[in-house]
Amino acid sequence: MSVDLCLLCILLIPLAATGLALIHQGLGRSRSAAHAMLATLCSLAITAIVFVLIGSAWMGFPTGLAHIVHVRHAPLDWLGAEPFFGLGLRFGVLHRPYAALVVALGLFAVGMASLIPISSGSDRWRLAAICAASVLFAGLYFPLFGHWVWGGGWLAQLTPLFGLPAFTDVGGAGVLQVVGGLAALSVAWILGPRQGKYADGIAAAIPGHNIVQVLFGCIFALMGWIGLEAAAGILFHHADFSQVVLTVINAVLAASSGCLAAVLTTQIRYRKPDASLSANGWIAGLVAGSAGCGLLSPLATIVIGLVAGALVTLLVEALELRLFIDDPGGAISVHLGAGLWGLLAFGVFGPTQGSRIALVLAQLIGIATLLGLMFPLIHMSHRLLNRLVPFRVDGDGDWQGMDIRELGAGAYPEFVVHADEFVPR
Amino acid sequence: MTLIGYLLMVSGWLLVFASLFLLAGLGQRLTFVVAGLLVELLGLGLIAVRYRSLQRGPA
């Protein structure tokens, strides 16, 4: 393992967070722009501290200490058991660079993933509640599933335990994107839609306020994703230099095909390409491609990206119009929908020396764990948290905007604000 | 309804998890895993329907 190359890749990951922040800020309303960016910074800060103090101990790393439960004589590694408060790192960074690099990767990755629910809660999720939810994300959800997949937990050990291929998620399609997408769905359900979004059962379009920032964020996200996928590949799948280069190529191909599929789909459906949905297609391609990144062929990656880009445009519409889920940034469709597709697609297109069905089965087991175990955990803990720290801003704040309500000043003081923006329709 | 949705989702996962211990054949396991996933989706659907009816209610 090249420590220098790995560290360089890890240092690119904050660009993914920058990209996602620009995207969800641009897709929200102008009256909540400063709040969205401050929420991003607070979330990054909280997840960094909580992950190093608590989360990294539970996430652990392959060959590290772990809690084992024996079920019918099968030793199930279900939780990391490294020292809390980063004590294992204090004297061990130079002697155990691998463990330190895993913590560094997790530190940036969890920050990036914690921004996903902020996107679905745009324009109505209170800052205090965002901070509290970020604690849960970095201290519980990510370390738990991260250990099972990246930390040598039971999903990574399906071969010795049950004779199946290991559940594979090289770049975090499940560990980061689907877990973040499930949190986004939970937050959207708890918060409900923005005021004025639905009238008489009909959805009103609330367009994002700065699509240029959204498209600019896509470029940042690509660079960050490349770093994330390459670093995770090096650390958890022993990727060599050629696989790292393939990871870079595949990331660009996945994003490109996702974006083009969204452009084409929206052109066909609405007779004009939709910029915000095309940006979502770009990110959806990245998300779907991250499950297999350096292990898939470029052709398979293009197919996966194309499906993800087309899928996300349909999902955004279905969630908004049929299920009444108000997701301003499209986070649920992009991260949950495309993430699940990417995990399944690895079973279909991924390299295997044994049975193809066994590989699909292993991926389905991971997907079932995300939906059947992680989502109830996330949604129930969010609902409990909502009782302690109410998620939703009051009705006046909804119309005023989160900037004025929670921060006391807007992001764009020189903008002309139309009077009817504050009048309930 | 939401509680039933949660219970169905967890039950679906238990079905998947139990199949790993109790069954050996690939086809049997695949059947149980797919069945477990369908139970989970049913639970998710129930929660979604509950949310949708709440949103449509006042209108």
What number of structural domains do the residues of chain B give?
1
| Residue runs with pLDDT of under 50 for 5 or more positions of chain A | none
Oligomer: heterodimer
Taken from the alpha-carbon principal axes, the silhouette of chain B is: elongated
- Unreliable stretches of chain B (pLDDT < 50, length at least 5) are none
* Sheet with most strands: strand arrangement of chain A: 1-2
SSE sequence of chain A, one letter per element: HHEEHHHHHEEHHHHHHHH
Q: Largest interface, and how many residues on either side?
A: A-B, 34 and 28 residues
| Element string of chain B (H = helix, E = strand) | HH
N/C terminus separation of chain A:
59 Å
Mean pLDDT of chain A: 92
Question: Any idea how many domains of chain A?
Answer: 1
Within the CATH hierarchy, at the fold level, what is the topology of chain A? Ammonium transporter fold
Q: Whole-number average pLDDT of chain B?
A: 91
Could you outline the blueprint of secondary structure elements for this entry?
The complex is a heterodimer of chains A (425) and B (59).
Chain A: H1 3-27, H2 33-59, E1 66-71, E2 74-80, H3 87-90, H4 97-120, H5 127-149, H6 158-162, H7 173-191, E3 198-199, E4 202-203, H8 211-237, H9 241-270, H10 275-289, H11 298-322, H12 331-349, H13 356-388, H14 395-400, H15 402-407
Antiparallel strand pairs in A: 1-2, 3-4
Helix pairs in contact in A: 1-2, 1-4, 1-8, 2-4, 2-5, 4-5, 4-7, 4-8, 5-7, 5-13, 7-12, 7-13, 8-9, 8-10, 9-10, 9-11, 10-11, 10-12, 11-12, 12-13
Chain B: H1 2-22, H2 26-56
Please give a structural write-up.
The complex is a heterodimer of chains A (425) and B (59). Chain A has one domain (3-422): Orthogonal Bundle (Ammonium transporter fold). Chain A has helices spanning 3-27, 33-59, 87-90, 97-120, 127-149, 158-162, 173-191, 211-237, 241-270, 275-289, 298-322, 331-349, 356-388, 395-400, 402-407, and strands spanning 66-71, 74-80, 198-199, 202-203. With 425 residues, chain A is mainly α. In chain A, the strands form two sheets. In chain A, strands 1-2 form a two-stranded antiparallel sheet. In chain A, strands 3-4 form a two-stranded antiparallel sheet. Chain A is globular and about 60 Å long. The model of chain A has no long low-confidence stretch (mean pLDDT 92). Chain A has 15 helices and four strands. The longest helix of chain A is centred in the C-terminal third of the chain and has 33 residues, at 356-388. In chain A, α1 packs parallel to α4. Chain A starts with a helix and ends in an 18-residue tail after the last helix. Chain B is mostly helical and 59 residues long. Chain B has one domain. Chain B contains two helices and no strands. Chain B has helices spanning 2-22, 26-56. The interface between A and B is medium-sized, with 34 and 28 residues.
